Amino acid sequence: MNLAAVIQLELNTIYTMKNMRFIIFFSIILGIHFLVNFYIYKRGLQGLEAMPQLIPYLRGVMLFLVLAYPVGRFLEKAWYSPVSSFIHWSGAFWFAGMLYFVLLIFTIDIIRWSNIALNFLPEKLGDSYLQVKLITTYVVTGIVVVTVVIGHINAWTPKIVKQTIKINKPGNERKSVKIVAASDIHLGTIIGPRKTGKLVKTINSLKPDIILFAGDVVDEDVKPVIKQNLGKNLLELKAPLGVYASTGNHEYIGGADNAVNYLESHDIKILRDESVLIDSCFYIIGREDREKTAFTNLPRKTVQELVENIDNSKPLILLDHQPYNLELAQQAGIDFQISGHTHHGQLWPFGYITSKLFEVSRGYKQKGNSHFYVSTGFGTWGPPVRLGNRPEILEFTLEFE
Asked: How confident is the model at residue 13 (pLDDT cuts 50, 70, 90)?
């Protein structure tokens, strides 16, 4: 067997293993999805015992919602249309509704189970008990609907975070630079023309010197971005020193090269394990997302490798989508790192989980002479809903020594 055949066999083996891992992962997620929805459905049946005529509607609505998100995502790849968008949006909203239905129903179940031991609730009284269950079902549904609506409004109302950071390095002729940044925009079906236009208008209103995007600019598949011509909005971004970005995990999920080519054709320079000297004053360094290895079997550069051949006496600004191992950036002499990825959980109470997973789940932190900011992101992934945090656009004024 010649060398080419050996290499091809190895690549085929790796490809098969990656597909198997994906199938196993997807099967687990899908299994959990169906189990959670079955739990909601069974409790819904019990809640509607006093009005059995509503049960067929419950079955139909639940079947549609359970299948909506995966079907919508599949459809838009093959046939992007208002129909696929409607199905996608319905499934996306249901993810948030599903979470809060489960939290409320499980809380009720805990009360019921506790009552078995402590007997603190009134005794069941025939039809009146069925009415109590029906009223409880209406109240729970109302709470979930109001919660999702409030979360959707919140997700569409970004705040502007302003912060001044002093860098202990000279900027040559520059005393300061104004950076306007964002992460996790997730351009696609959910983040469409209206939201993209709002992003661009807000960024331009801040009159930045330079614009930076810290990964997940595109929400996986670039087809909805192209179909909605979102690049037209991106071309309106204005900054004298340019617009730069790094890759995120969602660029790799959807095919990094396609996303990068589209963004670069619309005047956003993607830095892929590379750096650029801006105005002879400071460096912007863009690090490949850590998912690069999983999707390409190629390693990304370490932070130390990224700074080896540049002038470390100048300010070093790093875009690294996922905020792991902040101490490595500190050791490499990075002055300022902008990250995202966490969304700070996006939906309460997941922020408590991301706070345990990451040293910084959101906001600012200084370690030695290195400054870090982890953004909650501008867009949303999955449900167009945020609770427990706000979307944000970042305005940093870096003052050089």
From this structure: very low
